[in-house]
Write a structure and sequence with these properties.
The structure holds 2 protein chains of 2 kinds. Chain A is of the alpha/beta class. Helices cover 32% and strands 22% of the residues of chain A. Chain A folds into 2 domains: 211 residues, 3-Layer(aba) Sandwich (Peroxisomal Thiolase, Chain A, domain 1), CATH 3.40.47.10; 162 residues. In chain B, helix 5 packs across helix 11 and helix 8 packs parallel to helix 9. Classes of the chains: A alpha/beta, B alpha/beta. Chain B: It comes from Phytohabitans maris.
Chain lengths: 383, 402
């Protein structure tokens, strides 16, 4: 695996989040109110339910992805396509870019619908188009086909660690030479079907996010080596990193369904800890990925204040709304960790433009933890 | 990354031949066709009712091997993993070195929902069908996993992608032991939509045959234990095979149809040859994806002929005529068969082949009886709906035999 890769762009389709700046704000803020929606599953024994969720999210698929046939695509594939096509990238066919995607829910409603149709229709009358979309790989396949990306095409599924593992596998494909760059993303949808497995203490959420990764070489937002291990070793890593100023991160973004674990990780730490599921809701495998995107957003938020030189990819990140407005970030109440950052010389007083800090880049750790104890972590930094 | 040093130290399988790699290889050697009438589901009313099931006796025997779990695929995977670790001489718990789990699947635990298919509204009994991570639950109960636990679902290339990811993790030092494989169970949902797509064969899967009519679902699990060759030798054991190269690409063409030129497949084959520094004629057996569908086989044969054009036509056969198409388990089962082919110097035949398709004339289709002779390298390719392609090149365990 390469030691690090550079983030060259991002695309987001999340509830009440338009760009990296608003994602950073959302992570730092109190949980937003969720909307109560009604979910039904016709032709099944499942009773309709009403539940607070973060969503719906409109895919807003850019013209780059084409317009024909979009209506026949599953909603989650459209969200993925919307996020992926909104990233900067080469136009036209490209056999050097990998697509790596993580999702716990892709194909779930299609699978269930085929089952419901098989229960109620004569054999052979199940909608044939639904079947191929009922596997997990619909988003990755759709992004690859629609954007003409013929590099490796991987889908990861499972819990929150899958989102960070997707980045690890993309870095592996780049290191091995299977791809020169990677479009890595994750997505989730909320349906009556996904709610059968939803946890009561979490707010289900839908959305998609993706990052464009290039091998390291430039400055900007960097993703470091991924560590995948059990909870004991992962916790030890966090504690050891926090104990030494040289390795201490400036913050920790955690994706887990266990609120108590987040409290335990935050206890006594000299840096802030943000919780993806608390801020954005339960996105399954996409939660781990959003821990990384969130860390990148937090780095980008402090990057322009701390970076000694303009980001080389500033043009890419400076697309509508991707770079935060310094005034917004410095506004009252938006940075609960302001004291810490100010103490570290990373944040200027409200309304005051900071002097670049050439010494200390921002470094935030992203961590995903599953109930079984499996973990994945990755260091995100701005240089 | 030194892939050359990644060895296969153990294998395990649950297949329509029953429990264990021995049963699987015996079925291959004996040329048994394991597709037949489905007993697990009521398929009355379906025009085609055949698939390749793990026999009921073997399913019952799982009770003495692995913990209970609603998902058969999860139990198949656990049983194959225990067999493979035992074959490698590695304990399931209290090992030296870090172990990672790399598993490919297509449908995972979703077939649990199939059991509610009947007459009238669909019942939904449990939660595990909507939780993909449950596929690894049974393995976690019987094996200590202290490294990555990665569940790959890129379509029917899943088993090979798991091998590729695990081999890279071993080569990079992320893990000492990679348990790589694939698992899927028979899915009535797949059967239903394949029926609608008219993609099912009525009598037998006949890969590369002029009269091929379609495929049949299969099921099972297969696992390969990967370690660095020096580590295997240090334990006083001999590698069963080596992972010489892996390569991944995509067709980026169509959700259900392969690229008409086999672009992704050609790219992965050529990359594997380049990485292993071998010539096309050095490949002794191409273990084809060979689904038996009219759409696939001619495209695949042309692509292989183009990518492996040498002094002789590439030697090619598909075992799906015997095993059905086990989706996420298919490529892993084929890799295990590849390991055995290397060990026993046998190229399995196209057992159900009657009349070779003239469109496949660019490859040397192995006769049903198979061929005895030196097998030094096996190229195994896999791809599927969505367009992802992954190819794995295996070599003999003893590098001097190259």
């Amino acid at each position: 695996m390469p030691a690090s890769v550079t983030v060259c762009g991002a695309g987001l389709r999340l509830s009440e989040v338009d760009d990296l700046a608003s994602l950073a704000r959302r992570l730092r803020s109190a949980p937003a109110p969720a909307e109560v929606r009604r979910f039904a599953a016709p032709d099944t024994v499942l009773a309709p339910v009403e539940r607070e969720v973060y969503g719906p999210v409109e895919p807003r698929v850019p013209a780059r992805a084409g317009t024909r046939g979009l209506r026949s695509l599953p909603h989650e594939s459209l969200l993925a396509l919307g996020a992926a096509a909104s990233t900067p990238g080469k136009q036209g066919p490209d056999d050097t870019t990998a697509v790596v995607w993580a999702s716990s829910t892709a194909g779930l409603p299609e699978y269930a619908t085929v089952c419901a149709e098989a229960s109620t229709l004569e054999p052979g009358f199940v909608a044939p188009a639904l079947g191929p979309a009922s596997a997990h790989n619909g988003p990755a396949a759709t992004v690859s086909i629609r954007l003409g990306l013929a590099g490796p095409n991987l889908t990861l599924t499972g819990g929150a660690t899958a989102g960070i593992s997707a980045i690890a596998e993309a870095m592996r494909l780049i290191a091995a030479g299977d791809a020169r760059a990677a479009l890595v993303g994750a997505s989730a949808t909320v349906t009556r079907w996904s709610l059968t497995a939803a946890q009561d203490h979490l707010t289900p959420a839908e959305g998609a996010a993706c990052l464009v990764l290039d091998p390291a070489g430039g400055s900007g937002i960097q993703l470091g080596e991924c560590h995948r291990t059990d909870l004991v070793r992962a916790t030890a890593r966090v504690i050891q990193a926090a104990a030494r100023p040289q390795t201490r991160p400036d913050g920790l973004v955690v994706s887990t369904s266990d609120f108590g674990l987040v409290d335990a990780l935050a206890s006594g730490q000299p840096f802030p800890v943000w919780h993806v599921e608390r801020a954005l809701g339960d996105l399954g495998a996409a939660g781990g990925f959003l821990a990384v995107v969130g860390a990148a957003a937090l780095c980008a938020a402090t990057g322009p204040l701390a970076a000694p030189r303009p980001l080389p990819d500033a043009g890419l990140l400076a697309g509508p709304g991707l770079l935060p407005d310094a005034g917004l970030l410095a506004g009252p109440g938006l940075l609960p960790d302001a004291g810490l950052l100010a103490g570290a010389g990373l944040l200027a007083a409200p309304g005051e433009r900071s002097e670049p800090n050439p010494i200390r880049p921002t470094k935030i750790l992203a961590l995903a933890v599953e109930p079984c104890g499996s973990t994945a972590s990755l260091e995100v930094s701005s240089s | 990354m030194d892939r050359d040093g990644v060895a296969v130290s153990g294998v395990g399988a649950v297949s329509p031949a029953g429990l264990g790699v021995h049963a699987l290889w015996r079925a291959i050697e004996d040329r048994r066709v394991l597709t037949g009438p489905v007993t697990r589901y009521d398929l009355s009313g379906y025009p085609t009712r055949q698939a390749a099931e793990v026999p009921p006796g073997a399913v019952a025997a799982l009770d003495s091997l692995v913990p209970p779990h609603e998902s058969l695929a999860a139990r198949y995977l656990a049983a194959a993993t225990l067999e493979a670790l035992g074959d490698a001489g590695l304990p399931a718990h209290r090992r030296r070195g870090r172990l990672g789990l790399f598993v490919g699947t297509v449908m995972g635990t979703r077939p649990l929902l199939d059991r509610a298919i009947g007459r009238g509204p669909l019942g939904v009994a449990d939660r595990a069908w909507a939780r993909p991570d449950e596929l690894l639950a049974a393995v976690r109960q019987v094996v200590t996993v202290d490294g990555p636990a990665v569940l790959l679902a890129p379509g029917c290339s899943a088993g090979n992608e798991a091998i590729a990811a695990g081999a890279a993790a071993v080569a990079s030092g992320e893990v000492d032991v990679a348990v790589c494989g694939g698992a899927d169970e028979l899915s009535l949902e797949v059967f239903a939509f394949f029926t609608s797509m008219r993609a099912l064969a009525a009598d037998a899967i006949r890969p590369f045959d002029a009269g091929r009519r379609g495929t049949m679902p299969g099921e099972g699990a297969a696992v390969l234990v990967l370690e660095r060759a020096e580590r295997v030798a240090a334990r006083g054991r001999k590698p069963l095979a080596r992972v010489l190269a892996t390569a991944s690409a995509a067709d980026a063409h169509n959700l259900t149809q392969p690229h008409p030129d086999g672009a992704g497949l050609i790219a992965t084959i050529q990359t594997c040859l380049d990485r292993a520094r071998v010539e096309p004629d050095d490949v002794d057996w191409v273990c084809a994806h060979g689904t038996g569908t009219p759409a696939n086989d001619a495209v695949e044969a042309r692509a292989v002929a183009k990518a492996l054009g040498g002094r002789r036509r590439p030697v090619l056969s598909s075992v799906k005529g015997q095993l059905g198409h086990a989706e996420g388990a298919a490529a892993a089962l084929e890799a295990v068969i590849g390991v055995r082919a290397l060990a026993y110097d046998l190229v399995p035949g196209n057992v159900t082949l009657v009349e070779p398709d003239p469109e496949c004339a660019g490859v040397d289709l192995v006769e049903p009886a198979g061929r005895r002779g030196p097998v030094r390298r096996v190229l195994s390719q896999a791809y599927g709906f969505g367009g992802a392609v992954c190819t794995v090149l295996l070599g003999k365990g003893n590098p001097d035999a190259r």
